[in-house]
Design brief:
about 0% helix; Large ribosomal subunit protein bL33; about 60% strand; Rubrerythrin, domain 2; single chain; ribosomal protein; ribonucleoprotein; Ribosomal_zn-bd; Ribosomal_bL33
């Protein structure tokens, strides 16, 4: 079962990306390094509720 999640920047808390996550195989929160247009650089993006 997949669930739609939102990724937010760890520095400025801007919600930039959405993606799908397989809940049955990944129970922990997703953390990915992606480009933040607000900060202007690559930062850590975390899954939000």
């Amino acid at each position: 079962m997949t669930k739609k999640i939102t990724l937010a920047c760890a520095i400025c808390s801007s919600r930039n990306y959405t993606t799908n996550k397989n809940v049955s195989t990944h129970s922990t929160r997703l953390e990915v390094k992606k480009y933040c247009k607000t900060c202007g650089k690559h930062t850590l993006h975390r899954e939000t509720k």
